[in-house]
Structures are given as C-alpha cells and as structure tokens.
Design goal:
Blueprint (H helix, E strand, L loop, with lengths): L2 H9 L15 H5 L2 H27 L1 H25 L7 H33 L2 H31 L7 H31 L6 H13 L5 H17 L5 H23 L11 H39 L9 H7 L2 H15 L1 H23 L7 H19 L12 H25 L3
Helix pairs in contact: 1-11, 3-4, 3-5, 4-7, 4-8, 5-6, 5-7, 6-7, 6-9, 6-10, 7-8, 7-9, 8-16, 9-10, 9-11, 10-11, 11-14, 11-16, 13-14, 14-15
Length: about 450
C-alpha cells in the first residue's frame, strides 16, 4: 500500500465502514446500562446451572473431570490469543472479551443442554424417531445453539455499542462467544463419554474426545460459526451508510450461514461414505469444515484490510518518520508483515530488538486509534503520550542498531522454520487421526 493511498483512506473514513474507537472501555456508561445488569443476572444463572452439571461429574469422575478441564483449558489458550490478535490495530477491551467468552461457556451452553433435547424430542414427534436419530443433532442442536450464541453478541452490542466500530469487532466477539461454548460443551461431552464407557474414572474417553472434538474439529466448529454470525451483526451495527434493509438482510444471512454450517457439520452426511481409516476421517473433516472456514477467512481479510487502511492512514497523514517510517507503514497493517518485521529484528539485533519492535508496533497502533478520536496535534493529551512511547521504542531500536521496524528480505531461516512448523502440525494431526482409528 502506498503512502498516497493511505492518506486518501484517512480522508474517506465513511467509505471504509470503520468508526473512530471511543476512549477506554466506558465502564461507568456500561454500568448504567440496564442491559449490563440483565446480562450479569443471566450469566449468574448460567453459571449456577453449569455448576450443578459439573458437580455431578466431579462427584463420580473426579480425575477424568480434572483432566478434561485441563486439556480443554489449554486448547482455549491459543484460540483466545489468535482471536484477540485478529484486531491488532484496535484491540477489544479485555472485560468485553471475557464477557463474550463467559456468555458462550455459561449461558449458551446451559440453554442448549435443555433446549436441544426438547427440540430433538419435537423432531421425533413431528417427524419420526428415525428422523430424530439420524438428523436430530443436525436440526435441534444448531437451531438452539446458534440462537443462544448470537444473543451473546447482541448483549455485547446493547451494553457497549460504542465498542463495535468495524465488522472485525463483530467477528472477534462472535468467535469468543463460540469459543466459550465450544470449550465448555467439549468438557461436558468428554465426561459424557466417560459415563457411557462404563469403566469408572477413566481418562481414555476424555483423550479421545479431546482429539476429535477439540484438536481436530476445533478449527471449524463453534468458534467459526460464532465468528460468521458476529460478522453479520457487526455489519448491521457499523454500516450506517447502507440502507437498513440491506444491513438487516446481511445480518440475517450471516446468522443463517452460521446455522447452515453447523447443520452440515452435525449432519450424518458422509458419516460412513468414505470408508474407514485416518484418511477418510480427514476427508470428511475437510469437506464439511473447509467451506465455512474459507468464507470467514475471506470476511476477516476484507474487514481487516478495510480497518488497516483507515487506522494506518491516520499515521501516514502525520508524515513524521520519527513516529512511523514509510517502510513501517507497509508493515503495520498486515499481520504477516508485522510478524516478519519482529523476526527480522530478532535475527539482526537479538531478542531485545524483537521485543522492541513488537512494542513499537503496539504503540503505533494505539497512536493511530487515538488520532482517529482526536483532531489534535501530536503534542496533546493521549496522542502526545503515545507519540512519546513510540519515540522511546524508536530510541531503543536505534541503540541496538536497528532503527526501522521493517520486514526485510525473505530469509531462508524463516522459510525453513515455517515449513518445519507446518510439517510438524500435519504430523501431529495425522497421529491424532491414526490414534482415533478413523472412528
């Protein structure tokens, strides 16, 4: 992206569908919202319901419960970090991210435990027991669960509307609601598998459930469905430049897309049509999970690029190489180039330079957000403070002989590292598939 294009992006903010981010989390404003207290009451009720469910398992299978909670909690960490990093330039407040995760894990899960069973019974009565046996999980589960998860994003909008300033924000909150649901539901399924196995406090069913529902299915399961629905709600809230019917239509299509992806994932289609073995299981996972994954990746890429054009354009308009150089302008708006710049700094000047580049990038991103809020000079208020932070990190990099946080030329070491990491990930997936025996 050229500097003139970045400057044009700053002048055409309304066409980028990015609204200036308000300062702070607005805690006082949020506490005055009736929706916040309603949300907290629902969260408490959901927590009480899940505590009862968890207490039953702990009393009978204490060791298996501890292993299940530990495994799926560890699985949640990289997903949480990845989703939080999606919006590097304008990160969502931690309190709202926690609320989104908690809604998915406590409210959506507790509602779905009873709601899905009731709807499954309804499918059997209106259709047939055979229909419920084959398609009950595909029809009942997604209907209840996607509605319950989407309401979590709606609750975030109601209590903190001013924090939803791009489609990407909706993706982040939706994905975190889905992640909370996915982790808690997987723990319940793992312990249900222990009970079904009938071998007492045995962890083998927990490990099998972790490999299948967590490790292999996590990439395109509830986190992905929630992100898709969240993108639609983000569009509804942010795109004030579009007709209301258009915005509502996109939101409805996004939620229906999340529901349809979930139906496909739960459906018996391809259940035994590809034979047995690890390769067959991998093929089923790809055929069912890849389409919605590619769709959400395209949506995230589009929303991220639009937001990057706007916020990086704020810095380009300063025309101050002390705050951001032309090379850094091309780096800051891309996650892969930001990572490459940190890698390059570490290779040239050591770990301290790598850390300084990351801090510089974070300070530049925050400065861009502050500039979008205030029409003032770089010596005023928060803009001035973050300008000083950027200069401090620039001085650190200068002292290390690496003054410009650019990506550098492609390195065979980085290429080898990425290839090795990819090969290792493929090997781990294959081992997991083989361990499951294609079941």
């Amino acid at each position: 992206m050229t500097v003139p294009r970045l400057r044009r992006a700053r002048r055409t903010r309304r066409t980028t569908a990015v609204q200036p981010a308000p300062r702070g989390t607005g805690a006082d404003r949020m506490l005055r919202q009736p929706a916040f207290w309603i949300m907290m009451a629902v969260l408490v009720a959901g927590a009480a319901r899940m505590a009862v469910v968890g207490g039953r398992f702990v009393g009978v299978y204490p060791f298996a419960t501890a292993v299940a909670v530990a495994l799926f909690a560890l699985l949640a960490v990289p997903f949480w970090l990845f989703v939080s990093e999606l919006d590097f330039l304008e990160r969502e407040p931690i309190a709202l991210r926690v609320l989104a995760f908690a809604w998915g894990g406590l409210v959506a899960t507790s509602v779905s435990l009873a709601g899905s069973e009731a709807l499954d019974d309804l499918v059997a009565k209106l259709g047939s027991p055979e229909l419920a046996a084959g398609w009950g999980a595909a029809l009942a589960g997604p209907t209840v669960e996607e509605i319950a998860k989407t309401l979590g994003v709606v609750a975030i909008v109601l209590i903190a509307r001013n924090q939803i300033n791009s489609v990407l924000d909706g993706v982040v909150y939706g994905a975190l609601v889905g992640l909370g649901f996915q982790i808690v539901e997987d723990v319940v399924f793992a312990l249900g598998a222990v009970a079904l196995a009938g071998r007492g406090d045995d962890v083998q069913p927990v490990v099998a459930t972790f490999l299948l529902r967590g490790f292999l299915s996590g990439m395109w399961s509830h986190t992905l469905f929630g992100a898709l629905a969240g993108a639609g709600l983000g569009y509804l809230v942010v795109r004030a430049d579009r007709p209301p019917a258009n915005r509502v239509g996109v939101a409805v299509l996004a939620v229906l897309g999340a529901w349809a992806s979930h139906v496909l994932w739960n459906s018996p289609l391809l259940g035994d049509g590809l034979g047995g073995g690890a390769a067959a299981l991998l093929a089923v996972l790809l055929l069912k999970g890849l389409p919605p994954l590619l769709l959400i990746l395209l949506l995230v890429r589009s929303a991220h690029d639009r937001e990057a054009d706007y916020y990086v354009g704020q810095l380009a308009a300063l025309d101050d190489p002390e705050l951001i150089t032309e090379g850094e302008l091309a780096v800051l708006g891309s996650g892969s180039r930001r990572s490459a710049a940190r890698w390059y700094a570490g290779r040239r000047a050591g770990r301290r330079a790598r850390t300084a580049v990351r801090r510089l990038q974070r300070a530049q991103a925050t400065l861009a957000v502050e500039l979008s809020r205030d029409a003032c000079s770089v010596s005023d208020g928060s803009v001035g403070r973050w300008s000083d932070v950027v200069r401090e990190q620039r001085d650190v990099l200068r002292s290390l002989g690496h003054p410009d946080a650019v990506a550098g030329t492609p390195s065979w070491r980085r290429t080898f590292s990425l290839a090795g990491t990819t090969a290792l990930a493929v090997a781990v997936v294959w081992v997991a598939l083989t361990a499951l025996g294609g079941a």
